Amino acid sequence: MHIRRVQLCICILVIIVLFIFYSYIVLDKDISPKKINIENLTKFNLYSNDLLIQEQDWFISIPKINLEKAKIKENIDNDILEDYIGHFPSSSILNGNVCLAAHNNGFKNNYFKDLINLEENDEIIYNYLGNLKSYYVKNKYYISENDFDMINIDTYDKITLITCVTGSPELRLCVEAYSGKEKDEKVV
Questions:
Q1: CA distances from residue 160 to 64, 86, 137, 151 in whole angstroms, order as listed
Q2: By the 8 A CB rule, do 143 and 150 touch?
Q3: How far is CA 66 from the centre of its chain?
Q4: Which residue in 30, 42, 96, 153 has its CB near the most CB atoms, within 10 A?
Q5: In terms of DSSP bridges, do strands 131-144 and 123-128 run parallel, antiparallel, or are they unpaired?
Q6: Which residues are CB-contacts of 49 (< 8 A; sequence separation ≥ 6)?
Q7: Closest Cα partner for 176 from 133, 125, 141, 126?
Q8: Is pLDDT above 60 for 88?
Q9: Which whole-number Å values give the CA distances from 101 to 87, 112, 184, in the listed order?
């Protein structure tokens, strides 16, 4: 009986040590929930809207179309898109290709209703946990409703916005904007 208690204590101790080691790597040497290394969490796909992000800390503004601090939430399902701009979970959150989707008409919130009016060099302002970035529109084109190639990992620091096309349910409008005015600027 005594040997089983010792074995149980050793197992518990090993689990605690593994948790601390994991927390050291993922949470950047501090296991308190206040200090989280976003880069590591994104790399391991462990970010969670409920865990990390308060709504006021994740938003997009597009001055040309009077979109101001529209809140972003993880995922693009209908429940999210009803009240937020949705973030494609497989895309980057801060550097690389940040991909977002929103409705353009016929819903409670139609954040991307005027996306069609964007032109080259129009500014898109993106904020993630105090990391404020400006992007400038470079491309605007239509894609098939099933074409998701534009959300792939990209070496360019850009933001990709996607919405439905009124009257053409099989199409999506896609707007690409880059962090520099030139597409040649890659993520360092």
A1: 17, 12, 9, 7
A2: yes
A3: 21
A4: 96
A5: antiparallel
A6: 73, 74, 75
A7: 141
A8: yes
A9: 6, 8, 25
Sign of CA dihedral 91, 153, 100, 61: positive
Nearest to 125 by CA among 65, 171, 187: 65
pLDDT, tens digit (0-9, with 9 covering 90-100), for 44-80: 333 444 444 455 689 999 999 999 999 999 999 999 9
Residue with token string 């969490």? 41
pTM (global) more than 0.90: no
Over residues 113-171, the pLDDT tens digits come to 999 999 999 999 999 999 999 999 999 999 999 988 888 777 789 999 999 999 999 99
Residues with Cβ within 8 Å of 79's Cβ and at least 6 positions away in sequence, in order, are none
Phi and psi torsions of 116, nearest 5°: -60, -25
Q: Which of 54, 19, 66, 78 is nearest to 130 (CA)?
A: 54
- Burial per residue of 38-73, b for 16 or more beta-carbon CB atoms within 10 angstroms, e otherwise: beebbeeeebebeebbeeeebbbbbeebebeebbbb
Q: Which residue has the tokens 């096309």?
A: 165
What is d(CA 128, CA 17) in angstroms, rounded to the nearest whole number? 32
